[in-house]
Design brief:
By secondary structure, the chain is an alpha+beta fold. The protein has three domains: about 160 residues, Beta-Lactamase, CATH 3.30.450; about 80 residues; about 150 residues, Histidine kinase-like ATPase, C-terminal domain (Heat Shock Protein 90), CATH 3.30.565.10. Helix content is about 50%, strand content about 15%. It is built from eight helices and twelve strands. α5 runs parallel beside α6. The protein starts with 5 loop residues before the first helix and ends with a strand.
Length: about 450
């Protein structure tokens, strides 16, 4: 999941909602469980409270109004955390009796702390007890008429509630952590599965760009099927536009060829006259300009074709054999070292034209040997794209830096005794520039000129 991707956005949003929902659910469950534990604890205290109230309301036996035990040994154990206390609240008849566990201490009254009572007159809440214990206390007013008015209180150690709640919270945290991990794994799977068709479209477009496919194929979900159809339609429309452009270029070339030929023929008939010479001169300029712009239009149309890929090694090897036959009178040796994995991101005729011009130029100037090397490499370590580098060396006289600047100019020839029009290297420069590449000159290890052509790799 890369930054600024749909997959990362979906994963992060699902993760955020999962964490929020689990946290809220955990807090609610923990609160509900604590309330349930408190109610159960209060019911336990309520049993002791009713027993104590029943003992108070029963007739006195042997002068003992208050019991010393409620069937729970903890009420006998000093400072055990379990206490009962009965306070007579009749005016002028204050009397307090308590369990032995309370020792010399006493329990506070909830009514003094502003805790409201329930419908039956009882109250429940937390108070501080002896030895700074935290107690859960339940108290109730008991009115026995002439026998007195009493406030009965039962308290238990609140640590039991805290321990139960803490154990539940720990189990809840472990359970929800496992659940969160499972949900995140499920979310990851759902994101990958849901976005898989988009990945197929991305791979399909890459295949079209690399030349291994011509259109998006396969079935896609209804949500993105229109995108695939429109993309295929766009590719087809692009091809049709390119074909029409090529047709128009060819028609224009044929349309201009005949009038220029007529002008040249008419001028040739009056070749001795200055007017005829001027027409011939201007006709040649027109022919050169028309050829140049038509060639540029043809190349620009080619470059709009998606997915053109050419294996560089077979093209260079075939050109080397051809040049050996063309220049067999010079008895040249042409060495070829080509990387079989090198693929030019363009059309084969363009590669043949560029490399053919360079090799032909090297053969014209070489004394006995020409070396051609084709490599696939990265222009620098930080770059992700790759290039195809074609290096053509010869053992001729070479060129000075000033001559290297001149040879690339259109129609410029340094030696009129060599065959050619002087357009080859300028065509290579223009064509390489249209593909986003370049051509440089240097000194070859063989002693002559080195021409280095850099083109985009597929």
């Amino acid at each position: 999941m890369r930054a600024n991707s749909l997959a990362l956005r979906l994963f992060l949003s699902a993760t955020a909602w999962t964490v929020i929902i689990l946290l809220v659910t955990g807090v609610v469950l923990s609160s509900l469980y604590r309330q349930a534990v408190e109610r159960a604890f209060d019911r336990r205290l309520g049993v002791y409270l009713r027993t104590l109230v029943a003992d108070i309301a029963s007739p006195e036996e042997a002068g003992e109004k208050f019991p010393q035990s409620l069937g729970e040994p903890l009420f006998e154990l000093p400072l055990s955390g379990w206490y009962w206390q009965v306070t007579r609240v009749d005016p002028g008849k204050t009397e307090v009796r308590s369990s032995r566990s309370l020792w010399d201490g006493g329990l506070p009254h909830l009514r003094d702390q502003g805790i409201p009572g329930s419908t039956d007159g009882s109250r429940a809440g937390y108070v501080g007890g002896p030895e700074d214990q935290r107690l859960r206390l339940v108290e109730r007013n008991v009115d026995l008429g002439d026998e007195g008015h009493y406030l009965v209180a039962i308290a238990g150690d609140a640590a039991e509630i805290s321990d139960e709640t803490r154990s539940f919270d720990q189990a809840l945290i472990i359970t929800f952590s496992i659940l969160a991990a499972v949900l995140l794994l499920t979310t990851t799977f759902q994101v990958r599965f849901g976005l898989a068709p988009l990945k197929r479209i991305t791979d399909g477009l890459a295949a079209i760009r690399s030349g291994s496919a011509e259109r998006l194929s396969g079935k896609f979900p209804e949500e993105i099927a229109p995108l695939a159809r429109e993309t295929n339609a766009l590719i087809e429309t692009n091809r049709e536009i390119v074909e029409r452009a090529r047709t128009h270029v060819g028609n224009l070339a044929h349309a201009l060829k005949t009038p220029l030929s007529v002008m040249v023929n008419e001028a040739t008939a009056h070749g001795t006259e200055p007017f005829g010479q001027k027409i011939l001169e201007q006709a040649d300029i027109m022919r050169d300009q028309v050829a140049r712009h038509l060639e540029r239009a043809r190349l620009a149309a080619r470059l709009t074709v998606v997915g053109s890929v050419t294996q560089a090694a077979p093209v260079v090897t075939a050109l080397a054999r051809t040049m050996e036959k063309i220049h067999r009178d010079k008895n040249l040796t042409i060495d070829v070292h080509a990387d079989e994995t090198a693929q030019f991101h363009g059309e084969r005729p363009d590669l043949e034209e560029m490399v053919g011009n360079l090799v032909d130029n090297a053969c014209k100037w070489a004394s006995s040997r020409v070396a051609i090397e084709v490599v696939r490499e990265r222009p620098d370590a930080a770059s992700e794209r790759q290039v195809v580098r074609v290096i053509v060396d010869d053992d001729g006289r070479g060129l000075s830096p000033s001559e290297r600047e001149q040879v690339a100019k259109r129609g410029r020839r340094l030696d009129e005794t060599k065959p050619g029009s002087g357009l080859g290297l300028s065509i290579v420069l223009e064509l390489a520039g249209l593909y986003g590449g370049g051509l440089t000159f240097g000194t070859a290890p063989l002693g002559g000129l080195r021409a280095e052509l850099v083109l985009p790799a597929a």
